[in-house]
Design goal:
Elements: H1 8-30, H2 42-54, E1 64-67, E2 73-79, E3 82-88, E4 94-101, H3 109-119, E5 124-133, E6 141-146, E7 152-157, E8 163-171
Antiparallel strand pairs: 1-2, 2-3, 3-4, 4-5, 5-6, 6-7, 7-8
């Protein structure tokens, strides 16, 4: 019985071919809008289908999907020069939609005061006002801020000023 040895040139050619195939796969996925989704599973498909039905203007827009630590899918997108954040629960059911607003004197005073009291040393990265929610009693606002460890984090603040830190996101810098 003889053992076949592979020449170094054949091994290098095989490695290069596999690398080329991997790169082609990565670039092909990058151009597929579904590739922005954390996992294209049934829950994500249900969320995406609902988003496009609920907000038809999002169909031809870049939609960035993230799955937070809370297992919710969140879509970030822009329509009519306004940034939106739409959240779906862990079963793919719509929960709420927020619109991005400037963090300025137009933010309700109770929201600003509550944030400044609890997070006065934390830089606000983005502020989101509730546009619509399944739970009509929930009128909370979401603020993404730079935590003391440099990570982007989020907090919910109710109209009465009650603060609820969220563990949904914790990443180096929010793009939203």
């Amino acid at each position: 019985m003889t053992m076949e040895t592979k020449s170094p040139a054949r091994i290098i050619a095989l490695v290069m071919l596999l690398s080329l195939f991997s790169m082609a796969s990565i670039f092909a996925q990058h151009n597929d809008k579904k590739s922005d989704m954390p996992q294209y599973d049934e829950m994500t498909k249900k969320s995406n289908d609902d988003l496009l039905k609920r907000y038809p203007g999002a169909k031809d827009r870049d939609v960035t999907w993230e799955r937070g630590k809370d297992k919710y899918n969140t879509a970030f997108y822009n329509m009519d020069n306004t940034d939106y954040m739409t959240r779906y629960d862990d079963k793919g059911n719509w929960v709420e939609t927020y619109s991005r607003r400037d963090w300025n004197e137009d933010v309700p005073e109770t929201i600003r005061n509550s944030y400044n009291h609890n997070y006065k040393d934390m830089e606000v990265e983005s502020y989101w006002e509730l546009k619509d929610a399944k739970n009509k009693a929930d009128r909370s606002h979401v603020i993404f801020y730079r935590g003391d460890n440099g990570m982007s984090k989020s907090v919910r603040i109710a109209p009465d000023g009650k603060v609820t830190p969220t563990e949904a996101y914790s990443r180096p810098k929010a793009d939203y």
